[in-house]
Amino acid sequence: MAGIIYSEGSGLNNSIIGKQLAPIRAVLNENAEAFENKSMIKELFYMDKSKHFAEHYTSETALGLFQDVGEGGKGPVNGFQEGFGKTIEPFVWKNNFVVTKEMLDDALFGKIKSRANAFMTSYGRTREMFAAAMLAGGINKKTVIWGKSYDTTGADGVELFSKSHPSATMGTKFLQSNIFKAAFSTSIMDQVQENMQSFCDDDKNLLALAPDTIIIPNNAKQKRDILAAIGSELDPNTNNNAMNFQCGLWNLLIWPYLPKTLGGQPYFMMADKQFLQDYMCMPWIERKPLEISNYKDENTDDIVYKGYARYGAGFNNWRGIAICGAGLTNGTELTA
Fold it and tell me: What's the pTM value of the predicted model, to 2 decimals?
């Protein structure tokens, strides 16, 4: 989460208000830091600071392979081609809270602190809910969040999670999938991992992804099943002493703001965190950090604190993440 910018309104420099501003600012700062420390956004999204109304993300196709040309032979001339591109705009977010004249008169510091706490909790929660809804909404081309429609396609023009990702160089002649239909099991997890490790670039060059992160909502059964699959040194599905090669390979992220089910069934996501960052797969654009200003309402003598921020999220490269669940009817079917 970006830092907070304060701007003090006119007419608020008297001693009574001055005594209140400092503790309110301290509370706002403390809560911003707390949400930043436990936020899942920075774990998955590429955090990008922006000075523009929008940012454009693109890629280049791979360079051709080296060739054996023999002694004194001339090397091949290979070129790059621009891949798919995606433009993402930040959105404007606002909220406010009020410190009443009576609170100031009676020095009700507890109530003032409570409202400041609630304000920052609202800010942090809004960001987490928006990010989680965008990610879960990636099974469709658009998702509706709080009554507004948001684009959840990637740079290739299809859903973030799709079984028909085209190639920038070969179009629909070369399609890849990062959405799978199956209930969770150790075998299914192995297959999703294998599929991710087989992802190619636009020219069919193997990318050799190394999935290291599993993301799930706060679902009790799903947590137990996955922890049994990745936390046991022995194969959890057999009575013998077969080694569980998945043990110790994974970082499990439990994101409570994700919907518990998709298509009425549990699901899980798998990601290569380094690839997500290196290839700017899911940009989170910070255009303006939270700006807090205040003014005196002349009709009530209350002090109104206004919050303003600009940030947004979108999807660029789908290859760093995959999703699997029994309710994902548009996914590539896997068999345990």
Answer: 0.84
